């Protein structure tokens, strides 16, 4: 296999991503934060749990918006990374096929502190199967709440869809401009957009979180 | 600025600072997530976002600050805030009895403006919660007696972000 994940994680995890004199971390054409995993978890889960408790009509929309935030994240962050000088220096030399773009960005994700993402199946242009051994989302849920009756990794689902949309739907290899209009086109307007389904989740008792990403019908 | 070490645990792909897990996320996600929560909870959102920010920050600040107290502790908390990419703030008008904190580089305010343009109300709920945690620890105040309110915000047509720190009873 062309992609050396160990080398990518080692390189990316040691990048000097620290606030500048303004306390900002400009990188990949965006601003990063090295944020609290527990903050993301509690604000997301408390929102959903409040809506669940109230049997609110807005629960479904809220959960979709949490995953949509993951789509936005993936489109801009993963897309920015895949067009960055750091990618060109570390990952690009390893790439032999379009599928290596998927493997390469998953390796970079494994340097972000999100837990360990593993590709368990990849059908070019069609389907991604991915497992996360210790997603920070499920880790946060399990530390705070009782077992869930359904999957809870909203950000990860958005991330998986984002990877496939960038590589096979938007063709990130052509270095497109990552504009809001292009995001809408790729994720919501152009037929064949990818979506991820979390088919197993640690919050429900599964040993790992598993995602299947495929093109939407129609 | 001296940075506080972040440990990357290669066996789990988790990063921690003072034992607290940290994850990288961009302003796109931070603002889109906040927008999703604000849409879902309406008027309840600011309190949730501030309170959970305080809780998350407190867990780490208690470890990072250790026995340090007073202005030196507050300065260390400011450095941590800056290191993590949340922006920078001016706390020269803050004392043990409260005061005003200002910022012209809040990640949340600048990120919101870049993504959505101006908004009608302040955006920096995370910052308010962080400041409450920092102030109450640094100046040894009961958390219930401290209130931090963002009264001006760059994202809401303000000249900068302004946070009023009030201590019930004034001391």
Largest sheet of chain B: 4 strands, antiparallel
The ordered string of helix (H) and strand (E) elements of chain A is: HEEHHHHEEHHHEE
Decide which structural class fits the backbone of chain A: alpha+beta
Sketch the major β-sheet of chain A. Answer: 4 strands, antiparallel
**What ranges of chain A have pLDDT less than 50 throughout 5 or more consecutive residues?**
none
The unreliable regions of chain B are none
Strand order of the largest sheet of chain A: 3-4-6-5
Radius of gyration of chain A: 17 Å
Percentage of β-strand residues of chain B = 15-25%
Task: Tell me, briefly, the overall form of chain A.
Answer: globular
Radius of gyration of chain B: 16 Å
Annotate the secondary structure layout:
The complex is a heterodimer of chains A (218) and B (171).
Chain A (H helix, E strand, L loop, with lengths): L4 H9 L11 E3 L2 E7 H17 L5 H24 L2 H6 L8 H11 L7 E7 L3 E6 L3 H9 L9 H16 L10 H10 L4 E7 L8 E7 L3
Antiparallel strand pairs in A: 1-2, 3-4, 4-6, 5-6
Chain B lengths: L6 E3 L4 E4 L2 E7 H15 L3 H21 L4 H14 L6 E6 L2 E6 L3 H10 L8 H14 L7 E7 L8 E7 L4
Antiparallel strand pairs in B: 1-2, 2-3, 4-5, 5-7, 6-7
Helix pairs in contact in B: 1-4, 2-5, 3-5
Keywords:
heterodimer; A: 218 residues; alpha+beta; two-stranded antiparallel ribbon; 8 helices; globular; B: 171 residues; four-stranded antiparallel β-sheet; three-stranded antiparallel β-sheet; 7 strands; 23% strand
Describe this structure in words.
Chain A has 218 residues and is an alpha+beta fold. In chain A, 47% of the residues lie in helices and 17% in strands. Chain A has helices spanning 5-13, 37-53, 59-82, 85-90, 99-109, 136-144, 154-169, 180-189, and strands at 25-27, 30-36, 117-123, 127-132, 194-200, 209-215. In chain A, the strands form two sheets. Chain A has a four-stranded antiparallel sheet, with helices on one face. A two-stranded antiparallel ribbon of chain A has the order 1-2. The longest helix of chain A is centred in the first third of the chain and has 24 residues, at 59-82. The mean pLDDT of chain A is 96. The longest helix of chain B is centred in the first third of the chain and has 21 residues, at 45-65. Chain B contains five helices and seven strands; from the N terminus they run βββαααββααββ. Helices cover 43% and strands 23% of the residues of chain B. In chain B, α1 (27-41) crosses α4 (107-116). Chains A and B meet through α1, β2, α2 and α3 of A and β2, β3, α1, α2 and α3 of B. β2 (30-36) of chain A pairs antiparallel with β3 (20-26) of chain B, so a sheet runs across the interface.
């Amino acid at each position: 296999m062309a992609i050396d994940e160990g080398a990518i994680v080692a390189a990316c995890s040691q990048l000097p991503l620290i606030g500048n004199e303004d306390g900002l971390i400009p990188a990949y054409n965006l601003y990063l934060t090295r944020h609290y995993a527990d903050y993301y978890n509690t604000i997301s889960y408390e929102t959903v749990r409040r809506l669940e408790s109230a049997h609110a009509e807005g629960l479904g929309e809220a959960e979709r918006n949490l995953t949509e935030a993951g789509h936005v994240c993936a489109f801009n962050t993963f897309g920015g990374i895949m067009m960055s000088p750091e990618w060109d220096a570390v990952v690009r030399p390893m790439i032999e096929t379009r599928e290596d773009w998927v493997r390469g960005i998953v390796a970079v994700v494994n340097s972000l502190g999100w837990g360990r993402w593993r590709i368990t199946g990849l059908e070019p242009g069609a389907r991604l199967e991915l497992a996360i051994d210790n997603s920070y989302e499920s880790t946060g849920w399990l530390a705070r709440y009782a077992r869930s009756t359904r999957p809870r990794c909203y950000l990860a689902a958005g991330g998986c869809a984002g990877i496939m949309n960038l590589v096979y739907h938007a063709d990130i290899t052509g270095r497109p401009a990552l504009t809001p209009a292009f995001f809408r086109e790729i994720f919501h307007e152009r037929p064949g957009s990818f979506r991820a389904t979390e088919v197993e989740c640690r919050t429900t008792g599964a040993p790992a979180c598993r995602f299947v990403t495929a093109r939407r019908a129609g | 600025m001296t940075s506080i070490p972040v440990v990357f645990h290669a066996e789990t792909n988790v990063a921690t600072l003072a034992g607290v897990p940290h994850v990288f996320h961009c302003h796109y996600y931070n603002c889109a997530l906040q927008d999703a929560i604000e849409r879902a909870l309406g008027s309840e959102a600011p309190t949730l976002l501030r309170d959970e920010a305080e809780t998350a920050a407190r867990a780490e600040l208690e470890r990072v600050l250790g026995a340090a107290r007073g202005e030196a502790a507050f300065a260390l908390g400011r450095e941590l805030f800056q290191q993590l990419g949340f922006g920078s703030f001016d706390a020269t008008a803050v004392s043990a009895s409260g005061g005003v904190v200002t910022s012209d580089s809040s990640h949340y305010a600048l990120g919101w403006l870049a993504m959505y343009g101006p908004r009608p109300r302040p955006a920096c709920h995370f910052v308010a919660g962080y400041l409450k945690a920092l102030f109450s620890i640094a100046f040894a105040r009961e958390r219930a007696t401290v209130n931090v309110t963002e009264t001006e915000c760059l994202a809401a047509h303000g000249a900068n972000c302004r946070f009023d720190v009030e201590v019930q009873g004034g001391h």
